[in-house]
């Protein structure tokens, strides 16, 4: 049994890594301009010509960012699901993405209006504040309501309020400079720069390492607080760390790509089924890889499906993610009934 | 005189409760290694609150708890986790976890930074599972096993933690009789062989009396009694502790009976030597008030008769049955229209029983004989 499980984990990891490699190449090669595989491999050295510029300035950073942010998104979802012991929690449904979006929009409109350059770091900080703000509300609600679905409903409501405020700001700030803002506020991986990629890599890498270090207490926390405490876990510290880390991850995604729906819920659930376990030490890297695969796939579709029109990333993630969420809820209620 | 081991766990003037409001005050527990303390009391009396406070799940409102002489508040979570394990009523969340995974979580205090199990941890998991006989369901999902198995897996998990003291909140509540007995037998074995100290709450009074070295009774306001089972389980105490209004509990025999039928007695039961209990209970179920006699007060039938019969005609043990009692019995018999004789034969000293039966025949009463005589024969 132990042996069989190890083989299963190994196959799952190999499959996902292979998926990432294939999707990376597809994302880089496919688009309005098709670039063959041989050219992708040679351009790394020459960096010359039209195609090389497309690759280096547009496709490479965008693809990398999609992979990194997709992984971060799934991981944020996993942390929130663990924190709330709720399988349908995620940064989007709990309104954390929308809170981050709201503060980022306010900051951008204010700064652009005063012609100040907006740095990646500042955006992340703004998004983090917004994420914490929403998280605070969700935590307050979590103390008042004990049902899983009510928590999600209150999260969705917080999301609506934040989105409404964002829309208001964007509408009244209609200006050439912030046309991008409109695009961004609906979620998109377009327009990533190498500078963005650098910042997000650092933030996500550090957060990821910290999450990995929490794998052991997280495993105990999954059993329920009574047992975790008896095993010597400091529940308070762990809960604070979980809130901060999931907010940092959500903030990072929103700062660069805007709110993206369903990845945070659907991916951890699919990974759980794929691995047949909830062991955090496996789930953390697996969710990250799974999120990367899912987002690379969705972004590829978003760019190419209705080309030359690019779809919003959430449009695609919803098509694939929402059925997964419905399936979770149906199978859960069936299990509870009998 | 044998020198006594020092106390392993003591609570001194411990007050427990929620949100700073004391529910039960002045709890003084003293327990040596290898002893079992059982908490008894009605639902909501504060048994769980005391257990949670000892396990540090709830902060104390007052007093101190000492473990091996040390104030428990000074222990870190990691230190405490190697000394104390819990099995609580709240279900453990075990989504997609096999029973072996659940048991393995008990190794948490001993594993490294990432919680990866080493060979000795696997061995400890196996040992614990074999000890409570769940090794064969190690690969089953924890969500899919029966309550009885689940409780044993939880016990294996706690054993894996290699604790010195084990806290269990109503561990036998959902188990059938076989699993109740098995579960408590394993606990008793652990106490004897590993000098494990156990504090648990139970609803099964009869089992509590048998397994406990000490019993603590809480009634929702205070600790009512604490002591050995013999000191605590005195006649009539359980009725008082649980405020029993309908039915009865006999501390001597651990027998529970439903409320006696009310009204004028209609049946006279001639019983003795334990032959009458079934008839008494049958009459109770039918709601027919009855009189029974003549019983010695140490007869097996006596405790049941006392709580179910409208009147028992009884004689002091090892004394000849007096004429007075025989006359009283005859008087009652006259008033009843049915007579049930549970006895096939009477012993040579039971002339009074024979006299009663003959009197009933003389009066022309309807006399019912036992249905399965081989079980109810006298000596």
List the helices and strands and how they pair.
The complex is a heterodimer of chains A (338) and B (379).
Chain A: H1 2-29, H2 37-46, H3 49-84, H4 96-113, H5 120-144, H6 148-172, H7 179-185, H8 194-213, H9 215-222, H10 225-230, H11 235-257, H12 263-275, H13 280-304, H14 313-337
Helix pairs in contact in A: 1-3, 1-13, 3-8, 3-11, 3-12, 3-13, 4-5, 4-6, 4-11, 5-6, 5-11, 8-11, 12-13, 12-14, 13-14
Chain B: E1 7-18, E2 21-27, E3 30-32, E4 36-40, H1 47-54, E5 62-67, E6 70-71, H2 77-81, E7 84-87, H3 99-104, H4 119-131, H5 147-160, E8 165-169, H6 177-194, E9 197-201, H7 205-211, E10 214-218, E11 223-227, H8 229-232, H9 237-241, E12 248-250, E13 255-257, E14 267-270, H10 277-286, E15 290-296, H11 302-308, E16 311-315, H12 323-335, E17 338-341, H13 351-362, E18 366-368, H14 373-376
Parallel strand pairs in B: 4-9, 4-10, 7-8, 8-9, 14-15, 14-17, 15-16, 17-18
Antiparallel strand pairs in B: 1-2, 1-3, 1-5, 5-6, 10-11, 12-13
Helix pairs in contact in B: 4-5, 12-13
Largest sheet of chain A: none
Spatial extent as radius of gyration of chain B? 27 Å
Q: Strand tally of chain B, please? A: 18
Cα-atom radius of gyration of chain A: 20 Å
Average pLDDT reading of chain B = 87
The helical percent of chain B reads: 25-40%
Separation of the first and last Cα atoms of chain A: 27 Å
Q: Given the helix and strand composition of chain B, which structural class is it?
A: alpha/beta
Strand content of chain B: 15-25%
Strand order of the largest sheet of chain B: 7-8-9-4-10-11
CATH class of the largest domain in chain B: Alpha Beta
How many DSSP-defined strands of chain A? 0
Task: Provide mean pLDDT of chain A, rounded.
Answer: 86
Q: Which structural class do you get from the secondary structure elements of chain A? A: mainly alpha
Silhouette of chain B? elongated
Q: End-to-end distance of chain B, in Å?
A: 45 Å
**What is the fold-level CATH name, i.e. the topology of chain A?**
ABC transporter involved in vitamin B12 uptake, BtuC
